[in-house]
Amino acid sequence: MAPTSDFEQMWSDLAPVGRSASSGGYFRQPWTTAEAELRSWFAEQCAARGLVVETDGIGNQVAWWGEGDQPGVLTGSHLDSVLDGGAYDGPLGVVSALAALDVLRDRGFEPGRPLGIGVFVEEEGSRFGRACLGSRLVTGATTWEQARELRDRDGVFLADAVSDAGLDPDAGLLSLDRVGTFVELHVEQGRDLVDRDVAVGLASEIWPHGRWRFDFAGQANHAGTTRMEDRRDPMLTYAMTALAADEQARLGGHRATFGRISVQPNGTNAVPSLVTAWLDARASSDDALAAMVGAIGRQAHDRADRDGTSLDVSAESVSGAVAFDPDLAARLAGLGDWPVIPTQAGHDAGILSEAGIPTAMVFVRNPTGVSHSPDEHAETADCLAGVTALADVLAELAGTPA
Amino acid sequence: MAPTSDFEQMWSDLAPVGRSASSGGYFRQPWTTAEAELRSWFAEQCAARGLVVETDGIGNQVAWWGEGDQPGVLTGSHLDSVLDGGAYDGPLGVVSALAALDVLRDRGFEPGRPLGIGVFVEEEGSRFGRACLGSRLVTGATTWEQARELRDRDGVFLADAVSDAGLDPDAGLLSLDRVGTFVELHVEQGRDLVDRDVAVGLASEIWPHGRWRFDFAGQANHAGTTRMEDRRDPMLTYAMTALAADEQARLGGHRATFGRISVQPNGTNAVPSLVTAWLDARASSDDALAAMVGAIGRQAHDRADRDGTSLDVSAESVSGAVAFDPDLAARLAGLGDWPVIPTQAGHDAGILSEAGIPTAMVFVRNPTGVSHSPDEHAETADCLAGVTALADVLAELAGTPA
């Protein structure tokens, strides 16, 4: 079976799931109907290949090819999306894993150690605000006792969302005991590969990054009758902070974004009482990240003093720098003369790497670099090159017994 | 019957309706359960006074004391609130109207011409974005054909919201044929009366004011991997525009507020694709208002050019300056040596005045000036002074036949 037909068939099967008719983007939030459909689809794909899928208490999934207790090779990614996201971020890694397995079987490959395909839940943190929640729980980076109290935007507890999705959070989590190496294929989310004119690359590191919640509190008041000098308007403090974040990131060559905001009462003719905004910040080192977030916070506090508002900043999640196993990257790069490049995006691969599992990432070229957007794209030829590259990587890693 | 007991009883009856347990503020949006309860309460109060309430097809209400076709005197206000609003804005005028009628009857007053008490719906525009919608429809300033297609934040059409509330929009609207004069009592929303150390004042004029919708469009993208210089982030354009609005209003002694915002997709790790924000702007003259909004728009467009975003500005509602009948104000001011002051807030009184009905407003002191907020307040003694003042005004206006 040629990879082309398999890959393209799987891709078109997934295309309508969770897609917005108006924007063309995807709403595949965890523990929703769309995500349940994706989980069923994955189980069917595995079953069609004679693999048995294990689904854990929160919806992480894994299917192993080959028996034995020796350390195996796991590949895969995630199927959830950001709000109004693209088709490739996550699903490309899962579909490519299945297609790569087909390629290996077509080649007559027999795994020397177990080869697994996995799907982690809530990688984007789009519903409960914690990115890589599934892999964090599996590795113990986050405990269930910490996570179960998280609430989504509608106030639903994580534990209830999981139960309502027909899962049993008390049924336990996936074991990573059999995972000797992890490989995640992912669409690139920048333009490094475009600039280098190659279809495939490997990851060297993930920048440190995190999410901080800024609560700007003021006093609700009438938008007409309240003199400007009598106001305590938190929207102004927020606005200056958003511009300060942009400036700080530009100055340091880092990233800082306010993409989510919630305003109370959010009425046209009322000065707001509260503006809550979330800062996504990333930098090339842990120190640089802390310095940038500190500088943004200081500017925000100074402006709050001027505006008569108050500010509370709390870190919702902070991930330190992740250096992927350099020996592994060097060994794999030799298979295809692939460049080894850094990324500013968090991934389940980063969580598993931090948990001590030798980990590699394979990137597939993104012609515009656009991601987390309905405009996210990868050419089919590049996706197929990614499948072949992933098959080569898996053959290298799983070809011989541990 | 002393006004104290009546006023305070009515006030405490209304206190729990539509009140948020968490903020203490009010959510009395039109055509909701809370507003239906207020409408029933008003009908019961009128019935207890032997008055028959007429409710029109969209929920405007009026009850007349006295027969005859000669031009009468209408007083009243509204019962809806902004989101998380105060108790006084609107209801104080309705409760005071009922209490003033009690005072007049206690005095043995017999109207020389019909005296009516009215309630207009959706004065705040908190649900469908058009302030004074009820009075605009009654006067013809807005037609039903224009209004029926309005949608609330959940996409519900106005016509459906009205029908779902058990009203029949095809049943017609209140006639103003019997209204020779309109008087609206309202809590002051600034601090003019505090500064003058008096409990009651009259209105001279309403500043011109309006609402403009700003749609800032950019490109959704990954908050981590997208270099700052590759972004088209509409949040930055918005942030600068919010600060520019504040600056323009301060420079001119006007008002400009961005209190409402909607972000797409509103995800922490995505550069937004679209930021929609509503500008509430008010100034002391029509020219000054147009100049200020124009200046804000130009600064916003300049910034959009720098950010690679685009901007569309549309006026949702603009109300020109309203000068209340100066002879009427002078005549009434003599009753209590009341100051005559301008307001920056729109009112149904402004709509009726613009429709050619001689109109006056009575303001009751607000000790902090705070309004459109759970903190909005007026002292009971001042409210009772307002009731007496309104009774005096009504006696002056309705004491003799037309």
UniProtKB/TrEMBL annotation, chains A, B:
Pfam families: Peptidase_M20. Keywords: Hydrolase. It comes from the Bacteria. PANTHER family: ALLANTOATE AMIDOHYDROLASE, ALLANTOATE DEIMINASE-RELATED. Belongs to the peptidase M20 family. NCBIfam families: hydantase, PRK09290.1-4. This is Allantoate amidohydrolase. It comes from Nocardioides pinisoli.
